[in-house]
Amino acid sequence: MNRRDFLRDTTIASLTTALTSGVLTPKSATAQRSDVREDKKEPPPPPVATAVIGLSVQGREIISSLARQNSSPKYVCDVYDGKIFVKKSQAIAPTSTFTKDYRTILDDKTIQAVFVATPSHKHKQIVLDALQAGKHVYCEAPLANDINEAREIARAGSSSSSVYLFPGLQYRSNAQHKHVWKFVKGEAMGKCVSGRAHWHKRSSWRQVWPVAEREAELNWRLNRETSLGLVGEVGIHSFDIASWYLKALPQSVVGWGSIQEYKDGRNVADTVQCVLQFPGNVLFNYDANLSSSFENTYELFAGTNRSILLRDQRAWMFTETDAPLLGWEVFARKDEYSIGSTMNGSGEHIGTGIALVADATKQLALGKDPGKLGTDVSKTALYQSIESFLNSIRKKIKPEVTPLDGFRATVIAAKANEAILTGTRIDFQKEWFEL
């Protein structure tokens, strides 16, 4: 091979890699195809007969996602028949029928799938009954607020090949997280040496209701008897990503928590931190609070060659100066990143990141600039998780998220919460993760 042939083949290989990696912009290469039209509409997927149990905020988000996916629920269900909850739910799905008794749903032979969005401590019986009735089940994470109950749920979901139990670990189905996984798996980062995640939201988590008994039910997340707190209800998703990307289960956890602002009778901390120790002494730090929204949410994985930052539907890769070239960086769209700001905003500059865009190849084919658009933000992680569940039912294939995934994530979250409550280090035992 002469020098000219070598350079030609190397350039083609680099362009191909960049396209499939989803970081090449139209300014770098022409990728329009005559057979792809932006206005070409795909036919809607066949509907799946569904029902949603639990009509609080998360339940209504599920209803909204279902309505956009041609599977608007036939039933919506909640033990509380207050007009506000019912009206809000039926405004999203006007053809749905409201019922207080979920068994009405299970008795309907036409229902294929049930979404369980009740408080975590009420998941068990509903999920078990639904699986027994032959319904596919999407269960919000965590599977339960108790490890033994979570194990029962996961066992039941694993014992049948005809019905599926899909734990709501949303990031497992999120295109952006799946796209980043390609770089992690391909060792573009080098050795991953640490990770951290933030979840900062200015919210009391408290709901006000004129009836005291109902208000107590609505605020189940503020009671340690019924809730795994911030790490269980929110952190579980970041813990699951850490286990996925690090390709291992944690070995120990330490944690701290306190009530810093909302001293309103709750006994669940509004500010928490914990550290998961993975094999090789790789530490993953998690920090969450309900008092400050600064820095919002993200996950960061630091490597010897490159680090990757994820913010929901967007991600960036930061390269060390002495890292070996991957070959396509020169074609990639780059953003300046600053602390305390959005991209290209004010703040302390910390580096230049290569934009990792999950659906860049498709956008290029449509003549769009993926560097400007990024992933379709209207398709949230929840939307994509539900889409994956419905497609597994339509195609009769095993879901990409398994009951064992859901169980193990619940174990990690439950033990992290225990470490926070007791202020002690907890060493994970191998048998804890087994069904």
Walk me through the structure.
This protein is an alpha/beta fold. It has a domain at about 170-375 and about 405-435: Dihydrodipicolinate Reductase, domain 2 (2-Layer Sandwich), CATH 3.30.360.10. The chain is about 35% helix and about 20% strand. The strands form 2 sheets. Strands 14-15-13-12-11-7-10-9-8-16 form a 10-stranded mixed β-sheet. A hairpin with an 8-residue loop joins strand 14 (about 335-340) and strand 15. Helix 6 (about 145-160) packs antiparallel against helix 13 and helix 9 crosses helix 13 (about 405-420). The radius of gyration is 23 Å and the shape is globular. The N and C termini lie far apart (about 55 Å). Mean pLDDT is about 85; it is low at about 1-40, about 340-345 and about 360-375.
